[in-house]
Structures are given as structure tokens and as C-alpha cells.
Amino acid sequence: MAAARFALLITPAESTDEERADFSDSFRRIDPSAPALSVGELSTQRGDGIFESIGVIDGHAQEVEPHVQRLAHSAALCDLPEPHREQWRQAVALAAAECGPGEWVIKLILSRGVDHGPAPTAWVTAAPAADFAAARTEGIRVVTLDRGYDSGAAERSPWLLLGAKTLSYAVNMAALREAHLRGADDAIFVTTDGVVLEAPTASLILRCGDRFVTPAPHGGILQGTTQISLFAHLEAQGYATEYATVPTADLATADQAWLLSSVRLAAPITAIDGVGLAVDHAFTDGLNAYLLSARD
Amino acid sequence: MAAARFALLITPAESTDEERADFSDSFRRIDPSAPALSVGELSTQRGDGIFESIGVIDGHAQEVEPHVQRLAHSAALCDLPEPHREQWRQAVALAAAECGPGEWVIKLILSRGVDHGPAPTAWVTAAPAADFAAARTEGIRVVTLDRGYDSGAAERSPWLLLGAKTLSYAVNMAALREAHLRGADDAIFVTTDGVVLEAPTASLILRCGDRFVTPAPHGGILQGTTQISLFAHLEAQGYATEYATVPTADLATADQAWLLSSVRLAAPITAIDGVGLAVDHAFTDGLNAYLLSARD
Predict the structure, then answer these.
(1) pLDDT in tens, B27-63
(2) What is the CATH number of the domain that holds A122?
(3) Tens of pLDDT along B207-236?
(4) Which domain range does residue A164 map to?
(5) Is B167 close to A46, i.e. CB distance below 8 A?
(6) Do A145 and B166 touch (CB under 8 A)?
(7) What is the complex's ipTM, to 2 decimals?
(8) Which InterPro entries match (chains A, B) (predicted)?
(9) Which of A98, A128, A158 is at the close of a domain?
(10) CATH code (residue A198)
(11) HSE on the CB side for A146, CA within 13 Å?
(12) Min Cα–Cα distance to chain B from A53, Å
């Protein structure tokens, strides 16, 4: 995405019981390129916080409620204070009102706060989205990368924070660099015991005949808001959808595959580890037309 | 540690070939509690950067060179531009000069910079250290926690960034919270195949008779500067030291054990997973007396 054009610092509500019609006095608009955070911020020192990225189409923020719910889910996994959902909804509405025509992205960030500080730090930004037309129409090449974990790690060891969307994304970024080194555009993480997980910043869906499959969101996957929305759309069209344990070997037998995320939307996969995969361009265009329509 | 009392923003040297006697014009002193970083900072958005923590005793920064070397090592693992070592040495010297008597901590942070920005962002801070007298003298209780990885993961999958000291420390912090939930003070990470690694923010050494053992720093361990320094000290005193693959079961047979880090120094372990361990207080006092002496 481009640099943010809008940013709002949020003083998080102290209690989720607080019933307020208007949280505007808890927001402070700031220059997104000006200094705003102190060096004591635990987000910068330890990636200690959580985030969400929301797509915006012509000023309409997509799927706000699932994103706010997922922020609360991540907060619970990370022992952060529960976000006040109405406060975040109002912050997103203010940010969305600042987005121009076309595609934008709103980011929500909730940090543990300043070291030894009294409260979390929170902010939202809005920025024009990058142009993902090529990814959506021509598709992307992906490679599989070992995530290092076995498929039981998330359930066994919740302190690994698998399933939380934390600010500690250095490994996700390193995986994307590794994919680029291998001549690909993106990566699909797999477990050490041969189970497909997700992409570093996207969900995966596979098409097998008229059935659409995504890796089951236990086992350390961050369930994708875009994937959930697309499954509902496919079901309404009469397709079968399924959450399943997907063996890595099944990647080779899928008829088609896509990476799904809130801003890039549906990117058809043209090759996995160098082996070509068919792309149904008309069908994919239909998926993206749906994803570009106003969704709540 | 307490809030930082001193902070210096650094404009990183563009090339490590640059031979400059004086980097002072690349430093800008800032108020450590004032806004200094923009919301576009990738350290805050993705924990995308690296750091070091250096102990300071009565104004003397300990082991500066090993820390600067390790910063460079982490930068290489994370595909960050190579730090100019002399520039960082000078920044540390300025920070050390601001530290009062007693124990302080200097942090070095090198972030990937602002999203789509031209260069990394870098800064150092200095803060009074927390009082670790109780940990050093009375000791700490630890629990073992699964790190989720097997002992081959680091070598097999370098994008997992094991061995780099990144800002993505959310899991390390979650492991400490889990340890506290279990009534302990700290944790020891172990692999899924039963090999001892390290603590979330410290190295482990074990004493078996007159031999001192630490987990070998391949396999995803961040080699501890304090551990290296202490091994040299022990060797000079005639003790045998060893880097070894330590099976988890060996924790039960060690005569003594310590967690070592740059600021807390040597914290004797009084119990592992609830099983008591002897502490030689006089010997431990000797280790900390060495670690509190000026070291380079």
C-alpha cells in the first residue's frame, strides 16, 4: 500500500461495559507521516500488539464487524485488554469517510502500550491500496514453505500465539522475501507433518470439482474474513464448501486455487512450486466482482 | 526496566565502507517520552527489525563489540542493510555517557524503516535497569515450554529467523506470561524432539560436576553475549565448558543451572517444572561479581 493519508490515535475505552453513543472525544487526528509514537512503544520494541487490515471500496469499509470481532479474538489470545467494539467501529467509520474513490486499506492497531505505561496504545490509518489488478487477473506463482510447526502445535502450546494476528510479523515478511528469491510472488506455509496452513498474509482456498476447500481454522490458522465471506457467496450459488485438513500432497491435485485477503482479494494461483495450475479467469473475475461489491 | 531517560535517533550510514571519524551529525537527541516515530514505522506494524540490549555498570557499557557484531548478524539474517559498526559504537558511547551510577540498560534498535520509505530507522535508548538483586541472590523458578519447532527447523528453514534477535517478540512475551501463570518466574524453551534451547530473553547454562554446559548455538538459539563472556571467565578459572545438544531429560540431572542475560546477569535456577535445584549462593555471587565488573 501507499503511505497512509489519514491517521487517528485512539485512547482505548477502559471498560467494554462503557455505553457511549459517541467516542469522538477519544480520537485524535494526527499527521500520518509525523512523529506520533514514543520509542517506549512496545509495538516497536517487541512487536507486542495486534492488528487488522480492512479493505475499503469507494468509501465503504468491507466486513467491519468480522474484523472487529477478530481483533477482539486476537486480544484475548494475547492477554490484551478487550477492545471496545463500538469504539473501534466508530474509528473505522471516521477513517472510511476519509478514503477517496477506488480501493483503500484501513489498518487497526492495538499495542500493549508504552513500556511500564498505564494503558494500551491504539490507532487506525487509511491509505490508498496498491494496484492488485495483475494479481487478480494474471494470477500469482507460489511456493510452499515450512512453517516449522507440526499441526498439533497451536492446540498444545497457546503461547505460540498461532491464530492471533500479532504485530510480530517478521517471519511472515521473511517468508515473502524467500518466495521472491525463488521466483514466486507468494508462499503457502505447510506444517512439518505435511498439512497445508495459509499464506503469510492470506488464506488459501482450493477448488476440487464443484467443491471448495480451505484448511480448517484449528491448528494455528488465522481464519480469513475474506475467505468466510467468499464461502457464504459460493454456498449461495449452490457450491459445496468445506473446512478440512489438507495434506500438502493435495495441492497437486486441486483443479484451481486462490489466495484470499482483505485488500488483494482473490488472487488465482498459476503455479505451486513450479508446477502449473489452471486458472479460470472468468470465474475468478466473478469472485473479485463479488469481493469488490459492498459487503458487511 | 524503567522508562528511558535518554534517546538518540540515528540516520543510518548508507554504506559500511564509509570511513568517518565522527558520526555525531548522524545522531539527534530526542525526548524518550515524546512522539518520535510515525505510525508508518514497520517496527510497529510488523515487528520488522532487530535489537540488542546492553548492560551498563557505572557508566561502562558491557561487551559493546559482541553486541554490535550480533546486531550485524541479525541484520544479515533479516536482509536488513549491514549496520555501520563504528556508527553504532559511537551511539552507544553517547548513551553510556548519559547513564548515571549503578546499573542501566542501553537498547539498540534497527527497524526496516517507514513503509515504502527510503531507509531503515534506528535509535538507541538508555534507561535505569530494574532491580534484579532478588533474582541474582534468591534465584528464579522456571518451567519448560514447547517452542513448537523441532531441532532441525532453523537449519532447514532460515525464513523462520531463529537465531536473529528480531523485534517480533510477541511469542517470547507470551511465554513469560505463561510461566507466571504457572507460578514461575521464567521459562526454558524446548524443541518438539526434546532438545533444550534457551529462555525467552536469556541463555541457559548447566553445571554438571566441574563442567559447564550450554545448548549449542546452532539449531535456532540466539547465542548469548553474557554466556560467551562467562564461559571465558570459567575457562580462565580452570573449569571445562561445553556447547552440547542438551536433551530435556538432562535438566533433571544438572547439579546447578542459571539463566544468563545482559542486564539481569546470572540468575540461579531454584526449580525446574516444580522440581527443586540446589543453588550455590557463594559461587553465584562470584559469577555476578565478575559480570558486574567492567567487561569489553
Answers:
(1) 999 999 999 999 999 999 999 999 999 999 999 999 9
(2) 3.30.470.10
(3) 999 999 999 987 689 999 999 999 999 999
(4) 133-292
(5) yes
(6) no
(7) 0.96
(8) Aminotrans_IV, Aminotransferase-like, BCAT-like_C, BCAT-like_N, Class-IV_PLP-Dep_Aminotrnsfr
(9) A128
(10) 3.20.10.10
(11) 18
(12) 11
